[in-house]
Specification:
heterodimer; A: 511 residues; alpha/beta; Ubiquitin-like (UB roll); Rossmann fold; eight-stranded mixed sheet; five-stranded mixed sheet; elongated; B: 437 residues; de novo design (two linked rop proteins); 3 domains; four-stranded mixed sheet; 41% helix
Chain lengths: 511, 437
Amino acid sequence: MSGNGNVTLTIDGTEVTVPKGTNLIEAARRLGTHVPHYCYHPALSVVGNCRICLVEVEGMPKLQIACNTEARDGMVMRTRNERVEKGREGVMEFLLINHPLDCTICDQAGECKLQDYAFHHGAGVSRFEDEKVHKPKNVSWGDRVVFDSERCILCTLCVRFLDEVAGTDEVSIDARGDQVTLIVKADGKLTSPYQMNIIDLCPVGALTSRDFRFKSRLWFMQFADTICTSCARGCNTTVGVRDERVLRMVPRHNADVNGDWMCDHGRLHFAIANDDERLSVPRVDGRGVPYAVAAQRAADLLREAGDSAAAVASPFMTNEELHVLKLICDAAGIEKRLFLNPVGPGDELLVHSEKSPNARGAALLGFEAVDQDCEGVQEIDVLLYVTPREGIALPETVEARAKRRIVFAFHEREADVLFPLTTWIEKDGTVVSAGDRVQRLVKGFSRFGSLLTERAALEMVLQALEAGFEPAATPAQAFERVAAALAPFEGLTFTGVGAHGAPLGRQEVPA
Amino acid sequence: MSKIQEHRVMLKYADDPEQATLAGYRHNGGYKALEKALESMTPDQVTEEVLASGLRGRGGAGFPTGRKWQFVPETDKPKYLAVNADESEPGTCKDRQIMELDPHQMLEGSLLCCYAIGAETAYIYIRGEYPHSIKATERAIEEAREAGLVGKNILGTDFSCDVWVHPGAGAYICGEETALLTSLEGNRGYPRIKPPFPAVEGLWRCPTIVNNVESLACVVHIINNGAEWFKGLGCEGSTGTRLFCVSGHIARPGVYELECGKFTLRELLEDFCGGTGTGRPIKGVMPGGSSFQVLTPDELDCTFDSDSVQKAGSSLGSGAIMVFDDSVSAVEVALNIAEFYSHESCGQCTPCREGSDWVRKLVARFCRGEAREGDIELLMDVTDRMDGTTICALAEALVWPVQSYVRKFRSEFEAGITRRAAEHEFGGFSKPVESVP
């Protein structure tokens, strides 16, 4: 027996102590035991309708559903024995009798709980010989989600997410018995800016992404656990990549940041990474040159200009990139250190009003947030300008105040020195997200094989300015340099930041 | 003349056309129980009296009504009574009698319950297909409200209680108490997982008692005459009088108010109700609505009370006794039951949603004479897997009767297997047997 609001129970012969109120799925999870479940999600209400999480609890005549059974002191629970397996096998058989079994053309294949549990708990054969129930297929729920009612197992995760998390309560259940199907209320189209989360939640292939469907088999893709950079929230994500192309981005669990969700805007915001028209080599005076040549030219311009140069950074840059830019400013004697800080409307769930991932990092490294008018930049000799993302830029009139320009950009444009800009998925590094949390970007691929990240390109410029400078050999080393330079980073290590981030130290961070 | 006599307590004034009015009800002693309770009894004493009477719920499950009331916790939350008047179990038509002929009786019982459990609001959830019951109940509430029997400070006391009628929309499942509550809240009528039980967390997550109409009608007479009087009626385990609805192949169908424990089921059907009336023998009896097991002619000598019928392998359920003679195919009856429940499955839990229609398809194969070797075992196994694996009891309400038909009329099911179909009287009942696969 255990006090202090904890209870001790026995699961498959092993004792485990959990907080009072924990259900049996979560209690088993503590021991690394997976109790199969479809309709249960820790962030949503419990409905207990799928019936696959059956477990045996001593003293209870029937098998119990683990999702709605609270762990109690002295409880003895078994997650696997013949009786439990027979119960699960029964549920699996029921789930599959009217399922179309169209795995060969289903996007979910490979990450489908029906497949997984059929493999682990199913009988492997069906005794159902009658006509299957036919229901609507390829139903458009708007421009993002496509619904297949025959694949649906009616777990209602999507219904509950839209009601309880997104707050739009726009999917409902229609009809009865095995004719039951899901419908979208109002005009049949989803409106929630978080609607695509139901695709991830769907344990089967009933809800598919119009953007991703039929693009790739899961097992042909590679994955990078990184974050979304469309606002300061920094939702943790997993990016799926194939052939140097981002095919999808889905949220990754982080209880301190985004829970299990992300907004559709962030999720779909990766077109630039796949843009074939992007700049692939640096240019000097419009001609393609090796990075070293461009770096030397940039260094020469900056050295000549000195204090009559200005640096306009981007809050889409990592801390490591910003740190090298800061060192360049130090070396060249540039005083005007600015960054464009895009803002816009946020919401109460995840979307932050700062529309970039690292305004905090830029501020920490001594750059001053300015609006697009850039009052501080008047007549100057040289402008070193890292463009933010597409749609956000200095007006031409501001750029025209400089005689010469060194620019990092995605696309071909006017500049004395032009470096290709890379996207968030092409680099390793860290940012400071909302809540002063350091989070890691993880490289998914290198575009065009030869693109250097801004950090590498800037390091070459710095090397040309200062012969003694050695570029960081690894992302971890680059981070160590940032951490050594900034007091709030004290105690943080690159591995310590890890896949889920870590809060900054005690020091106040300028907004 | 049968030795069995009706003993009318609830239906005593059912033949009085004025009974449905407040004046008529009061003339016949109505609202005396409410006056008595409010003047001389504490809420706990009302509950104690009901508990002592041995009254068991009349909706089908037979749970002791007083015990249920005692589950309502001490809390600051509002408490509710939801009257289950969604009478939709096949064969059941007794609550309708009370609502149409004597609605004030239900209303008085509801007010007594509210007084006992501390509720200030009662909802009467009436089956949508009962327009007359809805009208009569609404009229009764209106009259009672005008007379100060519903609303603020009832009969000049501190007790206030409002009563509302909520018509159902045609789903059988809404007679299940938690689905009824979900429906009352304006949502799709889905049963809820228990725990929490409604008495602890019901309507809008507040303590709620769900009682059947007839149960509440009994409460009026228990308060008027005392628990001892009520216990003197019927027998142990089935105290008081009960309403039974006898239908099917029966000479005298109808709703009867009877004392249990005084005669056998066979006596009731053959003496009191006059047998099948078709000149043919009884083949099967479903003594408690369609949700429980069928009894065969050799099982009818049990005493007619809840516990004895349960021992015989079935249940008095909602008091609907359905009889069929030997002109009826047992497989067809099983199909009728399977069709009903597969149509009424709410579709929430996997085993019931998918299984109920599978069972229907399987039984239909026997009916058409197209079943295969092994299908009886398959039917039993599929139904076994539905039993006890769902949120509510609807799956069991399909499984128990269907399994009982297979067990008790196995030869008829065997006759539904393709190659034997032509040999049996009921084989290939609905369709010729030409379609051999």
